[in-house]
């Protein structure tokens, strides 16, 4: 049988091509319909493949893990450097472990000072990942310590941009933060690692320095703070992730027993590196893949309906072939060959659609989308498209082939001269009901995401992002170690320079947390209340160190009391302001103004702060984003006066600050004007990371906007295909019932009766599709629960409104063939039968 199959295959293909060429309009519509469905699936699968399915581009990636320190409020908290060193020493399941943290450097001595994005890494970091330098080497253990000769690794991009790709770059010097460093290696440009505190959501690093040489006593010696330090590790061969977790649980218990004051309540959190890179995108991508599969099914249904109508017109041909000796299996094989030809041609065109679709999808993805550089049309995507094309051809070709094989030869030959009256297109009606149901599910999903975004945009972020911009200032390293008076004077001069820039309404310098950007937390307690036994049991709050104009710049409302004034400086008693969320949590039904905060939670703390007094309460700011500031996140917020930052802390930080600038009107000033004012103060200053705060707010919901956009596109495509499908089926049914309609009209039926008859058929299919779609949506939209905000997966308003829209569009599609039925001439219809 197999031999016969291949023997007839060339003949079937030749005949199939001739049949398709005889009906170019039919073939073109079918191919374009399939190309849209297959192309959309190819585009989304390429994203799923690149993000979720492809292995990480590192050596033996299944052995790689990300490591964090689990603390109160944060499962992925930062690791203190002393704890990390003990993790390295005490574990038994890791072949290697390396720490990292993000930072930045001012590059000088080679043209205008420039801010570079950098990473501090342990020796062995790139060896663990299996990444080899383009030139030179990686850091040695001797370079990863305090007092070592300063070394640096640069990226291939910086090497080409700043040094012209010179081969003699190894051993040359470059000046970072006024420190001369020896270039020891060049990291390849195809190295992409976007994980917490390492390039996630931001630009790629330019340089790397050893983390162990960071000469900051609190970082190097104290276990109470993490300083944004995380780690990666490689498991020993044969070690499972669960075994590594159990091993690190033991290490955490031993460290808690050894250092109960600072390690109480802390534990290691070990997750696979791939899971850390992918984050929470897996559910989103699988929902999109399911949605686009519906689009393909609707495309297949439409083509199947076209083939059903066409097979009815070819019944006489099939009957003659069977009468001449061709078996029914031969006819089925011929029809399946034709449908496979359609699908393969549609699949080839779908690859082109998928290529452009992938490019369009990447243009709309959020900058936080992981592994975007791995997305493309690789062999797995090509195989997926081919398999999808074959499957689609079989799906939409089976029903017409089966129907053709069931026809009676004798009956067909007897009736070949006249139309088969009474055919109601039952299979086609079922198909239309199915595609209407699938379209409704997609439309409801898109509607829920639209409702989500509308709710998010209507929510109050706690500040007004309109006409607000932020930027960062980094001064020369000569400011580090300067007296506190010098640094405070520098900040006041910078404030005045920026505030006097034309177009600027208000300016505030800021340390600590950046709303919807970076975060900074501190442990605290209230004076007069019993303290927890261990510092690790103290609550945490988000900390902002700001100037008096901060509320005006951010337009955060003052609820009670007062905010900082110029009198709240280094010579006055320390003060603090808390947000309303913190007031409600710790002072329900009480007045917190006048109470004192205690930040001296760590007995070994070097810089003990005087206890500040609470002087005011301000509105809550959504620190984590419009959609991420929910019940599970840290809400308490504390504001401290930047002028009252302790002297030693100022000296460590030097002149480096965030700046929030409120403009009189959008575009009232530009970055060049602000930079010019800063350089008037000191030519060694670098202005970097400018950000429009409206964009910052928008970026906080970029994942949901991405999902809504694609679901909306798929839903509209499904609506178009479904309405086309119901139009095509009713047109076919009207054509089949021309004699019946003619008889009805000849016997006295009114044209409105005919209109009602056809619309009734369309209404039955539409209502059935809507009912099935509503049931399906109730079940499937539950998968979107984590993607929604402020709306339930079964939101009645969305379900009812979307069903009404689909019903209206479907009935409009029904009206056109119904009008044609009204125009049937009874005598003409009867004459042709």
Helix- and strand-based class? alpha+beta
Shape: elongated
- Compute the number of helices: 26
Low-confidence stretches: 409-424
What's the total number of strands? 23
Helical proportion?
40-55%
The portion of residues forming beta strands comes to 15-25%
Characterization of this structure:
It is a single chain. The chain starts with a helix and ends with a helix. Strand 3 (94-108) and strand 4 (114-121) form a beta hairpin. By secondary structure, it is an alpha+beta fold. The chain has 26 helices and 23 strands. Residues 409-424 have low confidence and may be disordered.
Main features:
about 850 residues; alpha+beta; ten-stranded mixed β-sheet; six-stranded mixed β-barrel; 26 helices; about 15% strand; elongated
Set out the fold topology.
Blueprint: H1 2-22, H2 24-53, E1 64-71, E2 74-77, H3 81-90, E3 94-108, E4 114-121, H4 125-129, E5 135-136, E6 151-155, H5 156-163, E7 173-176, E8 179-187, E9 207-210, H6 217-221, E10 230-235, H7 241-258, H8 260-263, E11 267-272, H9 273-278, H10 281-313, H11 315-323, H12 328-364, H13 379-405, H14 409-414, H15 426-458, E12 468-474, H16 484-499, E13 504-512, E14 521-523, E15 525-526, E16 540-546, H17 550-554, E17 558-561, E18 575-579, H18 580-586, E19 597-598, E20 613-618, E21 637-641, H19 647-653, E22 656-663, H20 671-681, E23 686-692, H21 693-699, H22 702-736, H23 738-746, H24 751-780, H25 796-822, H26 826-831
Helix pairs in contact: 1-12, 2-10, 2-12, 2-13, 3-7, 10-13, 10-15, 10-22, 12-13, 15-22, 15-24, 15-25, 16-19, 16-20, 22-25, 24-25
């Amino acid at each position: 049988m197999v031999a016969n199959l291949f023997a007839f295959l060339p003949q079937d293909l030749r005949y199939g091509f001739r049949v398709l060429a005889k009906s170019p309009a039919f073939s073109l519509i079918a191919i374009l319909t399939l190309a849209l469905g297959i192309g959309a699936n190819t585009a989304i699968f390429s994203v799923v493949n690149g993000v979720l399915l492809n292995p990480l581009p590192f050596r033996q990636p299944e052995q790689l893990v990300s490591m964090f320190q689990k603390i109160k409020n944060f499962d992925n908290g930062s690791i203190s450097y002393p704890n990390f060193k003990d993790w390295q020493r005490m574990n038994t399941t890791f072949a290697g472990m390396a720490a990292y943290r993000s930072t930045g450097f001012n590059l000088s001595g080679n043209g205008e000072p420039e801010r570079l994005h950098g990473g501090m890494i342990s020796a062995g970091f790139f060896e663990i990942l299996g990444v080899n330098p383009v030139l030179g080497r990686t850091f040695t253990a001797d370079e990863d310590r305090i007092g070592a000769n300063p070394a640096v690794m640069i990226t291939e991009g910086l090497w080409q941009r700043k040094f012209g790709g010179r081969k003699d770059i190894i051993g040359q010097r470059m000046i970072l933060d006024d420190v001369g460093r020896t270039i020891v290696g060049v990291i390849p440009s195809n190295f992409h690692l976007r994980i917490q505190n390492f390039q996630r959501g931001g630009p790629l690093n330019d340089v790397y320095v050893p983390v162990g040489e960071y000469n900051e006593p609190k970082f190097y010696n104290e276990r109470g703070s993490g300083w944004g330090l995380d780690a990666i590790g490689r498991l020993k061969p044969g070690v499972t992730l669960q075994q590594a977790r159990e091993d690190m649980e033991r290490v955490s218990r031993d460290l808690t027993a050894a250092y109960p004051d600072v390690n109480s309540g802390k534990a290691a959190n070990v997750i696979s590196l791939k899971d850390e890179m992918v984050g929470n995108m897996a559910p989103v991508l699988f929902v999109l893949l399911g949605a686009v599969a519906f689009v393909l099914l609707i495309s297949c249904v439409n083509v199947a309906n076209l083939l059903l109508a066409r097979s009815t017109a070819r019944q006489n041909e099939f009957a003659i072939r069977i009468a001449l000796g061709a078996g029914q299996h031969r006819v089925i094989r011929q029809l399946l060959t034709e449908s496979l030809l359609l699908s393969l041609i549609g699949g080839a065109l779908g690859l082109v659609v998928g290529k452009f679709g992938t490019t369009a999808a990447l243009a709309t993805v959020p900058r936080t989308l992981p592994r975007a550089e791995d997305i493309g049309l690789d062999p797995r995507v090509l195989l997926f498209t081919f398999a999808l094309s074959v499957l689609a051809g079989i799906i939409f070709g089976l029903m017409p082939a089966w129907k053709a094989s069931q026809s009676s030869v004798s009956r067909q030959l007897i009736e070949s001269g006249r139309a088969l009256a009474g055919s109601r297109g039952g299979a086609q009606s079922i198909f239309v009901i199915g595609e209407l149901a699938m379209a409704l599910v997609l439309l409801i999903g898109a509607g829920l995401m639209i409702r989500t975004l509308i709710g998010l945009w209507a929510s109050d972020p706690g500040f007004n992002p309109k006409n607000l911009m932020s930027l960062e200032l980094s001064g020369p390293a000569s400011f580090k170690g300067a007296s506190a008076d010098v640094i405070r004077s520098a900040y006041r001069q910078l404030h005045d320079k920026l505030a006097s820039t034309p177009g600027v309404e208000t300016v505030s310098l800021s340390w600590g947390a950046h709303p919807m950007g970076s975060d900074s937390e501190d442990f605290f307690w209230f004076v007069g209340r019993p303290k927890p036994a261990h510092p690790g049991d103290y609550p945490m709050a988000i900390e902002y160190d700001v100037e008096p104009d901060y509320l005006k710049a951010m337009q955060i409302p003052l609820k009670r009391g007062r905010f900082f004034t110029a009198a709240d400086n280094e010579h006055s008693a320390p003060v603090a302001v808390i947000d309303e969320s913190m007031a409600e949590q710790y002072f329900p039904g009480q007045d917190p103004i006048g109470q004192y905060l205690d930040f001296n939670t760590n007995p070994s703390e070097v810089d003990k702060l005087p206890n500040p007094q609470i002087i005011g309460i301000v509105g809550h700011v959504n620190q984590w984003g419009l959609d991420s500031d929910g019940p599970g996140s840290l809400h308490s917020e504390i504001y401290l006066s930047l002028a009252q930052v302790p002297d030693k802390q100022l000296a460590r930080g030097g002149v480096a600050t965030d700046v929030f600038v409120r403009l009189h009107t959008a575009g009232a000033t530009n970055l060049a004007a602000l930079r010019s004012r800063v350089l008037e103060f000191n030519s060694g200053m670098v202005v970097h990371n400018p950000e429009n705060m409206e964009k910052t707010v928008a970026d906080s919901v970029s994942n949901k906007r991405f999902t809504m956009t694609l679901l909306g596109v798929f839903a509209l495509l499904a609506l178009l295909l479904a309405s086309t499908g119901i139009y095509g089926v009713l047109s076919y049914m009207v054509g089949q019932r021309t004699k019946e309609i003619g008889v009805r009209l000849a016997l006295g039926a009114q044209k409105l009766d005919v209109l009602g008859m056809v619309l009734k058929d369309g209404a039955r299919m539409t209502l059935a599709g809507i009912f099935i779609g509503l049931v399906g949506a109730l079940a499937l939209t539950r998968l979107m629960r984590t993607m929604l905000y402020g709306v339930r997966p079964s939101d009645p308003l969305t379900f009812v409104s979307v069903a009404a829209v689909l019903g209206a569009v479907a009935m409009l599609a029904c009206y056109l063939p119904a009008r044609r039925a009204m125009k049937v001439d009874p005598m003409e219809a009867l004459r042709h039968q």
